[in-house]
Design goal:
With about 300 residues, the chain is of the alpha/beta class. About 45% of the residues lie in helices and about 20% in strands. The longest helix is centred in the C-terminal third of the chain and has 26 residues, at about 285-310. Bound molecules: nicotinamide-adenine-dinucleotide.
Length: about 300
């Protein structure tokens, strides 16, 4: 393949990302994990599957960064997942250390890559990756909005008994309890859900969306969601690698858009080969704008906490 993607962290999300990239014939993949056997084992398993799935994508497993050189996209999933009772923010200190090391080494090996950040707390981890890589902000983009929107879309489809293919949902803001599901901008065959469901029903679906990840953690008990997160990360990678310029909700570095400055927050972006090519400012009602500001404040709190962790 002429495209190369490095996936750091060969755990549940990283393994599923590698599988989707290969089976959709998007790119070759280098899987990196501190547990060398995990990356090598999953790579070999995926390569063996290629004889049945019939594709020519090669997957390589390693614990080093030499093999990652010249990657077009780097997807960082390395870090601890949540356990029941934990919030994403509880992972801040441990995952910041992992992100700093991984983003620094990967940037050295692939100075032209676009980084897709997955590890939690994702919005804060984008800041760590920005600093550790030394990349311009448009080449760091965080995955959550597509996942949260997909969860909202699925719950809407279930409620209305319609194909999820006819639903288009939009969730902005931070990836956490303060995410901002936008019912007015979520549609079924072009009709806003606010015209199809009662305010009470919509509120219940929004609440379930906010807890979409926690609900999965509650069932699994030993880790978090990974199939839908992998689908979301691969949709972003594909838009970059094929320069599709899809408009996707992703965490991007804001420089005044939506009244927010110097912070990664989930907003609609145009994603192409250069990374975040532009940020769309959609019309928000005063309550929606207020919710986005509250969400941004939660990210700001984590970024400040990061600074005090680093100083201690
Ligand atoms: P996992 O435990 O299955 O996999 C994480 C992997 O990272 C492990 O294999 C571990 O060995 C590896 N790792 C740890 N330190 C490393 C390092 N320094 N270098 C390379 N690899 C290293 O966890 P998972 O379920 O795959 O989740 C990974 C991360 O993604 C978690 O932080 C999780 O919370 C996050 N996540 C984010 C979203 C999102 O929407 N942004 C969705 C799902 C999961």
């Amino acid at each position: 393949m002429d495209k190369k993607v490095t996936v750091i962290g060969a755990g549940n999300v990283g393994g599923a990302v590698a599988q989707r990239l290969a089976e959709k014939q998007i790119s070759d993949v280098v899987l990196v994990d501190v547990i060398e056997g995990l990356a090598k084992g999953k790579a070999l398993d995926l390569n063996q599957a290629s004889a049945i799935e019939i594709h020519d994508c090669h997957v390589e497993g390693t614990s080093g960064y030499k093999e990652t050189a010249g990657s077009d996209v780097v997807i960082v999933t390395a870090g601890l997942p949540r356990k029941p009772g934990m919030s994403r923010d509880d992972l801040l200190a441990s995952n910041a250390k992992v992100m700093r090391e991984a983003a620094g080494k990967a940037a050295e090996a692939s100075p032209g890559a676009v980084f897709i950040i997955v590890a939690n707390p994702m919005d804060a981890m984008c800041h760590v990756a920005l600093e550790a890589s030394g990349f311009p902000p448009e080449r760091i983009v965080g995955m959550a909005g597509i996942l949260d929107s997909a969860r909202f879309a699925w719950f809407i489809a279930q409620e209305l008994s319609v194909s999820v293919a006819t639903v288009s949902a939009l969730v902005l803001g931070a990836h956490g309890d303060a995410m901002v599901p936008l019912a007015r901008h979520s549609t079924v065959a072009g009709v806003p859900v606010t015209e199809l469901l009662s305010p009470g029903k919509i509120e219940a679906l929004i609440e379930r969306t906010r807890n979409g990840g926690t609900e999965v953690v509650g069932h699994l008990k030993t880790g978090g969601a990974f199939y839908a997160p992998a689908s979301a990360a691969v949709e972003m990678a594909e838009s970059v690698l094929k320069n599709r310029r899809k408009i996707l909700p992703c965490a991007a570095y804001l420089t005044g858009q939506y009244g927010i400055r110097d912070l990664f927050v989930g907003v609609p972006v145009k994603l192409g080969s250069a990374g975040v090519e532009s940020i769309l400012e959609i019309d928000l009602a005063p309550s929606e704008r207020q919710a986005l500001e509250t969400s941004a404040a939660s990210v700001r709190g984590l970024v400040n906490a990061l600074q005090s962790i680093e100083m201690s």
